[in-house]
Predict the structure of DNA gyrase subunit A.
Amino acid sequence: MSDHLNDSYLLIEDEMKRSYLDYSMSMITSRALPDVRDGLKPVHRRVLFAMGELNLSHTRSYKKSARVVGDVIGKYHPHGDSAVYDTLVRMAQDFSLRYPLVDGQGNFGSIDGDSAAAMRYTECRLTKSAEDMLDDLEKDTCDFQANYDESTEEPKVLPAKVPQLLLNGSTGIAVGMATNMAPHNYLELRSAIQQYIKDPDIDIEDLIRTVPGPDFPTGGIIYGRKGIYDAYKTGRGKVLMRARAEVEESGGREQIIITEIPYMVNKTTMLEKIVEQVRNGKIDGISFVRDESDRKGMRIVIGIKKDSFGDIVLNKLYKYTQLQSTFGINNLALVDGQPQLLNLKELISHFVKHRFSVITRRTEFELRKAEARAHILEGLLVAVDNIDEIVKIIRGSDNDEQAQQSLMDRFSLTEIQSKAILDMRLRRLTGLQRLELEEEFKKLQEQIADLKDILANESRVYAIISDDLDTLAEHKEYRGARKTSIVDSTAEVSLEDMIPDEDMVITMSHEGYVKRTSAKTYRTQGRGGRGVKGMDSKDSDFIETMFVASAHSNLLFFTNFGRCYSIKVYAIPETGRQSKGRPLVNIIDFLPDEKIAACIPVKEFTEEHYIVQTTQKGTINKQSLGAYAKIRRTGINSVNMDEDDRLVSVSLCTNDAYIVIATLQGKAIRVSAETVRPLGRNTRGVRGISLREGDHVIGTVTLTSEEQEILTVTENGFGKRTALSEYRVTNRGGVGIINIKQSPRNGSVVSVMAPDPEGDILIITRKGIIIRTEVAHISTTGRNTLGVKLINLAEDDAVIDVTSCTKEEEDSSGDDSLNTEETPVTEE
C-alpha cells in the first residue's frame, strides 16, 4: 500500500514540474517578453494586425475601441477584454510610449493615473508609426501561423520598418525573468543603425556616442552616464532620472517650478508623497504645493518659505520623493524563441537582420509577381501579332478547353498565357493597346532585372534598409528632437546637498557635549555687555571650546592620544541656543579615555596648506594638510608626544605665514613658518618656544601680513589688539617676548587669535555666558599693555574661550535679540 502511495506522489510531483515548466515557457514566449525583431509581445502584435485588417489607417476615420477589442479577442487573443483594452490604451498614451502606435480619440487616461474611459466610449485608429510596423506585410515578408482555433491566420512577427524595441522600449514580468527596456530617439537610432550597416564590426563605444542614452516620453533629466554605459555594454544598468525643475523668484520669495517628471511616475502620487513628507517633517521649507498643469503642458509650483532656500528644498525633494527615480534597464528579449540579454549592438544587429530578411522576401515576392505578369504579357503580345489566326482557332473550337489547347499547341503557349488570351477583351487588339503592352513589358523587364540584382547583391539590400530609415525620418512623427536631457553628474543627492552652507557656531563642553547653532542666533552687542546664555550645562560641566565654521566644512578633531578624527559640520546635531547638545562620543568612535584636545574646520584639503600642531610644552609640528584628506571612521595617528605633554593648539598656515606661539603668562614668540621643517604624520615635532617654570602654551596664531593683528583675551574678561609688526621675528626655541602685561586685574591669558577687523568675536565663560561683539570696538594697543574690558563677569565666572565669526546684519524682528539679562535656562 505504501509503495503505491509513493508512486502516486512521484507521479504528482512529475506532473507538477512538467505543468509548471509548460506554463513558464508559455508565459515567457507567448505573453511577457517581446520579440527582438519587431519589439512586440503577441497581444500588441495582434492589436495592430487586427486594426490593420479593419483598415484603420491614420488617414481614415476612427472606429470604436470596442470593435477593435472584439476582433482581437474573437480572432486572435483568447483572453479577457480588459487585458486587450489596457494594451490598446497604453499604446495610445503619449506619456507611456515615445512614439504612440494608436491614435486615440476620447479619454485614454492621464499621467495623473486617471483610468481611460470604457472602450464603448473611446475611438481609435493606427498612427503613422504603427502603419510602418505593418507595411509590406501583404508581400509575404513574414511567416503566418494558425490562430487559436485555426479558423484564420495571424503573423508570427511584423515587418517593422522602425526599430520598435529600442524606439518605445518594453516592460514585462515572466516566470523567473523580466524585461525593462527604455525608449529612445528615432533620429539617434537611425544614425546608429546606419553606422552598423556600414561597419558591422563597429565598436559598441562608437554606437554609444551616437545614441547617448534613453529618450523618455515625459522628458526629464538623466544624471550620469555610467548606468547608460552599463546597459548598452552588458544589457543591464540603472539610470538615474530627475524631474526638470527650476528655482524662480516670485513676489520676493522663491518657488520651485516643475515642468517635467521622471518616466513612469504618477504625478498625483508624487504630489501626495511631497505633501506627506512635508507634514511628517522630513522636508521643511515648503509653504504650498500647487498643480497648475493644463493642456499646454505640465506645471507644478512649490512655494518656499521666507527663511528657506529653494535649492536646498529641491535637493530634499530629489532625495525623499519621486522627483528623482531610477529606471532599471534590463534588455531581455526573445531571440529565435529563446530569452537573451542583449547589448545595444546586438539589438541593432537583430533588427538589421530582420529587415534584411523582410526586404529579401519582399523582393522575391515582387520578382515572382513581375515575372508572372511578364509571362502573361508575352502571350498577349503573341496574340496581338497573330490576332486573325487566333480568332479563327477560337471560332473553330467547340469549347474553351479545346480553344485553350489549340492555342497552346499552335503558338507554344503555356496554360496561363492561353487562358489570358481567351480572357482578353477585344479593345486590347488596337494599335494603341499594343504599344501600351509593349511599354509595360519593357518596364517589367527592367524591374525584373533590378529585383534580381537586389537579390544578388547584399549591399543593395542594406542600402534599402538605410534608405527606408532616411525616408521615415522625413515624416513629422520622427523628426522630434530629444526630450530627455543627459548631464554628466553622477552624484547621488547627499545629505550635504540638502543643508545650507551657512556659518554655524560649534560649541563643546568640558564633559564632551557638542552642538551646532546658527551664527545668526547670536546678535551683536556693544563692548562690555552681559551676553546671552549659550548652553545649558550641569553645575559640574562648563563650555570649553567654541568656534564658527561653514556647515559643509570638515571638522578635524585632534585628541590627547595624538589621533585625528573627521566629520562634517552638519553631522553635529543642530539644537537651540540653550541646549547642551549631545555627547561627542555618540558621534565619533573614540578610544577609551580619549579626549578632544583641539578642533579645526577645513573647507578644502590642499597641498599648499599645512597643519601646525603645538603642545603644552612648546613643541611644534608642521604637516601637510593633504595627509588628512581621507580619514577612517576609526581615526588616524597624528603626532607623537611625551606622556606628560598634551596638544593645546592646531591651526592652518602656508609657508609664507608667520607662527606666533603664546603662553599662559603673557609671553609670545614669532617664527617664520618656512623655517619649520614639514614632517609626516605620527612624528614628534621640534622645539617652538622655551618655557619658564609654571608657564605653558595656550595657543598658536598664524598670520601672513604685518598689518594683521593678534587679539589676546584674558580670563578676567580683558583683551586688546596688537599689530603683528610689534612682534619681531626670531628663531624658534627662544623664550619669546611680552605679549600682554599681566596683573591680578587681567588674570592669565586664555586665548590668542587673528581676528577679522570687520567681523565679530564670540566670548564664552565658564558658566556658559556668550557675548558677541565687534572686533572694531576693541582697542588696538602695544604689546606691553593691560587691554580693555570685553565682558562683565559675575564674581565667580571666568572667560574660557574666544572665537571669531562672520559679521551679520542686525535684525530687530526676532526673538533672539540679546540684552544685558540672561536668557532663562530651559532643558532640551
Notes: Residues 808-828 have pLDDT under 50 and may be disordered. The two ends are 77 Å apart (CA to CA). The longest helix spans residues 344-385.
